[in-house]
Amino acid sequence: MGLPLGGYLLGLALHKGEFNPIVDGWFGTLTQLIPAAVCWMAVYRTRFRHIHVLLAALAMTSYALGNTYYVLTLAGSLALPFPSPADIGYLGFYPLMLGTLFVLGRFQVWDRSWSMVLEGAVGSLGAAAVLAVLLGPVLALDSTGPPSLATAVAVAYPLFDLLLVAAIFGIAASQSLMVGRFGAVLAIGLVIFAAADVIYAQRVTSGLYAIGTPLDAGWSIGLTLVAVWIDRSVRADTAVKPAGLRVTAFAVSGVSTVAGLGVLVLGTQVRVSMLALILAGLVLILAAIRAQLAFRQLVRMSDLHRQSRTDDLTGLPNRRALYSDVPGLLAAGQAGRSALLLLDLDRFKEVNDSLGHDIGDRLLAEVGRRLSQQLRTDDLLARIGGDEFAIFLDNTDQDQAVAVALKLRAALAEPVTLEGIALQTDVSIGIALAPDHGGDVGLLLRRADMAMYKAKFARSGHHVYARADDSRGEERLRTLEELRIALVTDQLILHYQPKIDLATGDVNAVEALVRWKHPGRGLLYPDTFLPLAEEAGLMHDLTNVVLGKALDQAAAWRAHNQPLTVAVNFSASSLINADLPARISAMLVDRGLPPTALTLEITEEFLMADFPRARVILSLLRGSGIQISVDDFGTGYSSLAYLRDLPIDELKLDKSFVMPMADDPRAAALVASTIVLAHSLGLRMVAEGVESEAVYNALARSGCDQAQGYYMSRPIPATELDRWLANHRTVAATGLAL
Ligand code: C2E
Ligand code: CA
Ligand code: CA
User: Fold this and answer.
1) Ligand 1 binding residues, C-beta < 6 A
2) pLDDT at residue number 58
3) 269, 270, 340, 705: which could join 444 in a potential S-S bond, CB 3.0 to 4.6 Å?
């Protein structure tokens, strides 16, 4: 295709005016017939299975044949009437090409959320409005005469162009996932084609058109690009969505809105056709509706978020709320002391088993009521599990915490009468103090829990945590020593879990998860040693080891033509180093890796702990091209406003939201709105903890970008992942599920 096209362009640049049999005849026709032939080869290659490929081939053939007729007539120096049979061929192109675009775009109209459909409509109408302005003179001229076949045909061209451009921009703005990696080639090809049409129409209208100018090559270039797209997308077989597409889509609808506004402003200065004004008006109305709906979604989202933080039974905050609020309270009370109390009812299981869940539930509700009566308004009371309550007391020392515990026990000592039965509820309370026993919720809860067991065991009612309660204290020390050794003797290994692109089924990224090949205890999972590493200040070294290994592996994959992006988890403590961005860049350069090969997974905790600092570090990292992902999204409480201001690319929705999706419509609704929210902030959404096909499909339907979970694959060693990927590819190629 390239050779004749090059020849044609050269010929057009050299010769002037006059019809030239070689340039306008041979090259002019060949540069359209060959792309049509390329399309037919693609049709043959796909065994007529892809209707859009067939439609495109027919469209190209129709146009090329029309043009051949036109050229042959000119070559024979015959007068060409208007309309002529050539116009049949030319005009045939448009409906067939629109058919191709319809087949490509239709998936998303059914499946995508309203926001994307609106986005598409805004894109479409904006483009149409601009074109309507450009085509104003052409349309106006033809509508004045009496209706005839000639006028109808003449008007058909610009109207078809309008539809074509509207369809392309509509698909681009609503980000047709089906157009795939080479979608831009198709879009550019068709836009060039339509542009040639528009310029041609303007020249003909003003009597300036002459054959044999570079304009004539416009159609050939457009058709060649369409053929390139068909050929490429058929060869690639699966359509891959580039990461940048989301941003492009945003830009398209944004630009369209501005274009609509521009057309209206223009309309106040010069005469602009009614059609253009109507289209531009519609663009602005739709854009306004879109903004309004997005706002409502945000409100609904925060409502759902509140619901997800509340325990239904007691109306108290739940575990999630405790985890998200306490860090802020701890940070706020920096210098002061505070206490975390963990309450567990004694023999509650007996009540539940002998008197039934209904009575059990009512008892819990009553306990919740009594507890809250004893507390100050700024104490935080949460129900964190079956019969477990946690209380965070700000500005409280040990004596005060014990006093509160006594008061609470007294309040519960009074029997609760339900259905004529007086129930005696005893409670065991464990107390952990900050900062003495820990500086974060997780550790405080663990220690309060140990203290609570001690209290329960000793039937003492309450107990304040002491180091000695850490029954595994000695073992901890030994493990810590071993961990120090493990870090320098290569005992840490990485497993990788694939992130699947939901739109295409492709895998372009994996998450690296650390494991410890312990010489005596076998393979240890992170939950057994990361808290220890964190406490002992080893996190910085551990992250370095993990990062090095992950990047080595990424380089190995790249060398085998398998460019996977690796995601590495960074704890808050390993991120605070100011030299981190420079160090990571150096590590990438050492291995000849582009920055896009790495994603950092950070937690909301890090974002919230020191927002301005997080922002600076993340900006540096992201500025260098590394992607930033917010892990366990939803468990903390990063406010939506914060997210908008942060340099991040991706949200990883926590598994606690994803797992219940299959059988809890409320959870599914929350996830769906979170996805919409993420997209409206221009962020990619990844769901983790996908354990079933039902959840996988629900996520795909909601427009989630990527999914990770046991349903697809557990985290596995790199060699196993290679096998998994090969298998995954064959399965995908044969069109089976996943
Ligand atoms: P995470 O970052 O949230 O990682 C995902 C965890 O969810 C992994 O547990 C993974 O095995 C698990 N998971 C994946 N799919 C499913 C699923 O379908 N169902 C269920 N139930 N779980 C699933 P893992 O490997 O035990 O890691 C636990 C946590 O340890 C990670 O949570 C991360 O916070 C931390 N971690 C792991 N490796 C590193 C590391 O190299 N550095 C740091 N700082 N933290 C790490
Ligand atoms: Ca992670
Ligand atoms: Ca996670």
Assistant:
1) 497, 513-514, 525-527, 530, 543, 546, 569-571, 601, 631-632, 655, 688-691, 708-710, 715
2) 96
3) 340
